[in-house]
Each structure stands twice: as structure tokens, then as C-alpha cells.
Design a protein that fits this description.
The chain is an alpha/beta fold. The chain has helices at 5-34, 44-51, 58-63, 80-83, 88-97, 114-117, 126-141, 158-166, 188-199, 205-215, 227-237, 253-268, 279-282, 285-297, 304-314, 321-328, 345-350, 353-363, 455-463, 480-483, 492-500, 560-565, 584-589, 599-602; strands at 68-73, 102-108, 148-152, 174-177, 385-389, 392-396, 421-426, 429-434, 444-452, 471-475, 505-509, 522-527, 544-548, 553-556. The protein is built from 24 helices and 14 strands. Helix 8 (158-166) runs parallel beside helix 15, helix 9 (188-199) runs antiparallel to helix 10 and helix 9 (188-199) crosses helix 21. GO terms for molecular function: 4 iron, 4 sulfur cluster binding; metal ion binding; phosphogluconate dehydratase activity.
Length: 606
């Protein structure tokens, strides 16, 4: 199938914008490959240190004949998605030896759980944990004793952080290894209903806790389609998983065999063979476009409007919100997964999952089918479904139609003709809005502003009944420079309640919303942010704010002379405690959301 002309045009735009940086990146990777980043050129004392921690693999390592795979793991057992990785390294070492390779845990990286920190001070470390993970990945791989790597990570900042760091070792072949989602518990729609009841004071804290524990009940990724599961969809579309690995449950034979295959595939695509597939060449402009398309076609998390530009930037690739906006107009919505529907990711997987979506998009010329994936059979393999047959891992063709067209549909019968992402621009700056889960009669909201400087103030005003009206909630000083750009997920229940009561409600913020947010129109990632003089700092209570996702505008309806004369609100002092003061350098050095909201990349440009 020929490429859709707009997909081709957007890709060409990205290639042109990236031309110089991408070439410098590729030149750097060639120098890294040529500089002796392999074990035979290291000193004997250096090698002895590297081998001292292992007994069973030492003799194999000394021969230097097989690949040594560096494992970078985000394991911890307070994050359900990453608790699954507990036994992975010891299993991976066995599976590597089966094909004459070895494997070592090169290092661990932090993996915080946004679900635990939502609404509390730890959330202000969340976004910058991504840069910390990237640096941790670089430290892990800096020993230069590895010919390939396996990256164990799933959730929000972990996958982007691993990739940002790993791409600076892009001369190595690498694979992303997921752990899979927990099995379905309390339905997500019911969970949201209970949260709204609690926000209204209709049920007790104990009843709320019972519901939450029933929803988040075991090891594995959370089952809603938030940032973590959007990560997995994107990794499939970039060809960095074993095909179809994203949403296979933990503890199954299929999950185990996919991980075994991933380890052994890394050993096959090293530089000593005839199928060399380095990460830096796999992640090119086409792969980045595929990731953006996958996100739009599935109604994925808005957090990736920050993360994907940052991942791309680490590989010398420039993608901005205009590219997302243009793609969204031609990429149809093929799934309805919570919060954009009632189904969870297990139902999505059962209905065809990522392979079905990728097959349909590729068939329509809306994905690049010629990317350099890690799969032996090329990118077409990502449109097939893995299974265990006769105790062996196989990939099967999918049926022409989904097993559940209330969850996944074909390209000829989408849920909607576009992806549901828009840019908003006006005298308040430039923001994003996701409308795939917003009712069409709420795509335009015009109402008086109520201004806050943190989400706790919004919650207090809601409880006091001060927001029982048409209102645009403006929550500012929530950008990366102000406080690390925490997600404002605690605003979802009260704003949802106000909307359910019939009020016209919207949120405008220079912060982020959770990847699980949906039905309330939210103009987010507003740039420039309030701190440093962004226009959102001029808004006053009572100003009429217009959020217009149809025209793509975001305006404070204030006389222009008065607007120009207004002073900016004073920023609150930097918060202390919970280690936030240790991240001051990251806040001070961060760039705007559209560039990736990264201090690391702001100072590591190619």
C-alpha cells in the first residue's frame, strides 16, 4: 500500500527539520562503534572487574566469542508493573547461554509510581525522574563491556527515560522487554464512578479504598489505557518489542516465551553477524512517525506529546506538536479503551490488540511498513498475533474483523475519522487538547476563569461549592520550571462531577493531566509557562476564557490594551521537602513542553 500523502509529507517535514542533528547523531554512533566499545580492546584488569560478579558465565565471557547483553532493569516491588521483573535477569542469563551469549545486570534505574504520588509532593519529581532514568541508563551502559542490551521497563517515565539514555549507545542492538498488564479487576468505569461519589462526599474513605484495591489488585501494568500502556503501543509501532508482546499477561507461558525470544533475538542482531540492527538506526524518523500514529489511532496518553519529542531528540530527530496535529487529521480512531471507552487493555488484547491496529494502519498507508524493526520478518510481523502451539512460540495471521468491534475496528469502519488531538493557540500561548473522549458539544467552552496555583486549592474550592457554575479552572505555575510539571490527576473527579451536574467546565494549565484523563476538555502543557512570564500569569478571576477545539484557539477575552498593561502574577516560592530541592537544577534548566520539558536534553544537544 502506498503511503498516505499527509503521512509522507509530515515525515518529509521531520526529516528536513532533523537533517543536521540527525546526521551528527549518526556520525556520533559511527564513532562510538569504531572507537573500541568492545571487550577485546579493554584492559585485562578492567575485564576482571567486569567478570568478578558472575561465576556461571565467566568462562564463556572470557572467550569473547558470544555477545554479552547488558540488562538495564527498572525492577522494584512497590510498582505493580515492574514487580514482574523480579526473576527476569536470572532467567535471561539462562536463555542467553542457550544461544552462546551471556547477560549481566548492567544497572538499575528508578521507577516511581505516579499512581502512588498523584496529588502529593512526590509527584513533583515524576517528570524529572525520566531524565534521571536516562542518566542511569547511560551509567549502566558506560562500562563498554556489552555488545547489546535489553531494557526492562514499562511505565510512564521509565520507557522514555530508558530510550533517551539508550539512544546515546545507539550503535548497540537493543530490545525493550515488557512484563504485561495485570488481569482485569474492578472495571475502570466503575472505579471512576466510585471516585466521583467520594469527591461528592457520598461514600466513605473505606469504601473508596475497597474499590481502588479491587482495581489495582496484582502484579502487572494497570489495565486502563494511560501513559504506561500507551508506551507499549508505541514500542510495538517502533518495532522495538518482539511482535505482539505488549499486552500478554504476566505469569503465562506466552509471556515467558516472548521474553526468551527477545533475549535471543538481541544475540542474533549484533555487529558480528549479517543482520546488524543497532538501536540508533531502528529509531529513525519513520519509526517516530509510526509511534505518533499509533498514539493517535488508539486515543493514547497526552503525556507522550512531551515524551515522544524527547525520545526523538535523543536520536537527533525533531518532531513538534504541529506534526501531531497534522497526523491527527488523517489518522482515524480505531480503539475504544478506557478512558476513551469502557474496555480495558485486556479486552483490547482479546479483540486483536496492537497487532490488529498496526495491520490496519499499515494496510491504509498510515504507517511506515519499511522501518528497521528488531523482528526477523520485518515490520509486517507486528501485524500478527503471538501464540503457543505445540509448546512453541508462533505468530498467526489475524482475522479480517476484530473479535469485538465495540473495542477495536478496521480502518474502513473507525470510531472516528481522526485521532482527536488538536493544538490550541492564542493570546494565552500554545497548548494541547485531547478530544477523543470529550463529547462534541463540549469542544468549545467559554466561561469565567477561576485562578489557582495548585490542585489542592481547586479541590478545596470544589468542596466549598465555589465552582458550582460554568467555569474555566486555570491552574498555573505547574510547568517544568515552576515545580517539575506534576500531573493534575486529582482534578479529574471534581471536574467530572461539575460536568455531570450540567455545568460548562474546562481546565487550562501549564501542567500535565494524567494519561487516564478523558471526558473534561483540558488545555494542557500551555507554553510558555507562567514562571518566566508566560501569558497565563496575566489571567484574573472572572476573565472570560474561550477554549475552542474546533477553531484551535485559546483566548482570554480581555481588551488588548488592558491585557498588554497587566502585570504577571507573582510565582509561589519553590517547595521544599520530599527531595524536591535536589531537583532545582532540573527545574531551572528545563525547556518548554513541546521540546520535551527536559533539562538533560536542553544541555546535551547534538
Amino acid at each position: 500500500m502506498a503511503l498516505h500523502p499527509e503521512l509522507s509529507a509530515v515525515t518529509d517535514r521531520i526529516v528536513e527539520a532533523s537533517k543536521d542533528k540527525r546526521q551528527r547523531y549518526l556520525d556520533l554512533m559511527k564513532r562510538e562503534r569504531d572507537s573500541g566499545a568492545d571487550r577485546p580492546k579493554l584492559g585485562c584488569a578492567n575485564l576482571a572487574h567486569a567478570y568478578a560478579g558472575t561465576d556461571e558465565q565467566r568462562d564463556q565471557m572470557r572467550t569473547g566469542r558470544g555477545m554479552n547483553i547488558g540488562i538495564v532493569t527498572a525492577y522494584n516491588d512497590m510498582l505493580s508493573a515492574h514487580a514482574t521483573y523480579y526473576r527476569y535477569p536470572e532467567q535471561m542469563k539462562v536463555w542467553a547461554l542457550e544461544v552462546g551469549a551471556t547477560a549481566q545486570v548492567a544497572g538499575g534505574v528508578p521507577a516511581m509510581c505516579d499512581g502512588v504520588t498523584q496529588g502529593y509532593s512526590g509527584m513533583e519529581l515524576s517528570l524529572f525522574s525520566r531524565d534521571t532514568i536516562a542518566m542511569g541508563t547511560a551509567v549502566a551502559l558506560s562500562h563498554r563491556t556489552f555488545e547489546g542490551a535489553a531494557l526492562l521497563g514499562i511505565c510512564d517515565k521509565i520507557v522514555p527515560g530508558l530510550l533517551i539514555g539508550a539512544l546515546r549507545f545507539g550503535h548497540l542492538p537493543m530490545v525493550m522487554i515488557p512484563g504485561g498488564p495485570m488481569r482485569s479487576g474492578l472495571p475502570n468505569k466503575e472505579k471512576a464512578r466510585v471516585r466521583e461519589q467520594y469527591a461528592e462526599g457520598k461514600i466513605s474513605r473505606e469504601e473508596l479504598l475497597d474499590a481502588e484495591v479491587a482495581a489495582y489488585h496484582s502484579k502487572g501494568t494497570c489495565t486502563f489505557y494511560g501513559t504506561a500502556n500507551s508506551n507499549q503501543m508505541m514500542m510495538e509501532a517502533m518495532g522495538l518489542h518482539m511482535p505482539g508482546a505488549a499486552f500478554v499477561n504476566p505469569g503465562t507461558k506466552l509471556r515467558q516465551e516472548l521474553t526468551r525470544a527477545a533475549v535471543q533475538r538481541v544475540a542474533e542482531i549484533g555487529w558480528d553477524g549479517d543482520d546488524y540492527r543497532p538501536l540508533g538506526e531502528c529509531v529513525d524518523e519513520r519509526a517516530v512517525v509510526n509511534a505518533a500514529v499509533a498514539l493517535l489511532a488508539t486515543g493514547g496518553s497526552t503525556n507522550h506529546l512531551i515524551h515522544l519529542p524527547a525520545i526523538a531528540r535523543s536520536a537527533g530527530i525533531v518532531i513538534d506538536w504541529e506534526d501531531f496535529d497534522r497526523l491527527s487529521k488523517v489518522v482515524p480512531l480505531l480503539t475504544r479503551v478506557y478512558p476513551n471507552g469502557s474496555a480495558d487493555v485486556n479486552a483490547f488484547e482479546d479483540a486483536g490488540g496492537p497487532p490488529f491496529v498496526i495491520r490496519e494502519l499499515t494496510r491504509a498507508g498510515l504507517m511506515h511498513g519499511d522501518i528497521l524493526s528488531i523482528a526477523k520478518d520485518g515490520f509486517t510481523a507486528y501485524g500478527t498475533k503471538p501464540a503457543i502451539e505445540d509448546d512453541k512460540l508462533v505468530w498467526n495471521e489475524l482475522p479480517a474483523k476484530s473479535d469485538n468491534d465495540a473495542v477495536v475496528r478496521t480502518i474502513d469502519d473507525p470510531f472516528w475519522h481522526e485521532g482527536g488531538f488538536r493544538i490550541l493557540q492564542g493570546n494565552l500561548g500554545r497548548a494541547c487538547i485531547k478530544i477523543s473522549a470529550v463529547e462534541e458539544d463540549r469542544w468549545i467552552i467559554e466561561a469565567p476563569a477561576r485562578v489557582f496555583t495548585d490542585q489542592a486549592q481547586v479541590q478545596a474550592a470544589f468542596k466549598a461549592g465555589e465552582l458550582d457554575r460554568d467555569v474555566v479552572v486555570v491552574c498555573r505555575f505547574q510547568g517544568p520550571k515552576a515545580n517539575g510539571m506534576p500531573e493534575l490527576h486529582k482534578l479529574t473527579p471534581p471536574l467530572g462531577v461539575l460536568q455531570n451536574r450540567g455545568f460548562r467546565v474546562a481546565l487550562v494549565t501549564d501542567g500535565r493531566m494524567s494519561g487516564a484523563s478523558g471526558k473534561v476538555p483540558c488545555a494542557i502543557h500551555l507554553s510558555p509557562e507562567a514562571i518566566g512570564g508566560g501569558p497565563i500569569g496575566k489571567v484574573r478571576d472572572g476573565d472570560i476564557i474561550r477554549v475552542d477545539a474546533v477553531a484551535g484557539t485559546l483566548e482570554a477575552k480581555v481588551d488588548s490594551a488592558e491585557w498588554d498593561a497587566r502585570e504577571h502574577a507573582e510565582a509561589p516560592p519553590p517547595a521544599m521537602g520530599t527531595g524536591r530541592e535536589l531537583f532545582a537544577m532540573m527545574r531551572n534548566g528545563a525547556d518548554e513542553a513541546e521540546l520535551g520539558a527536559s533539562a538533560l536534553l536542553a544541555h546535551a544537544e547534538l
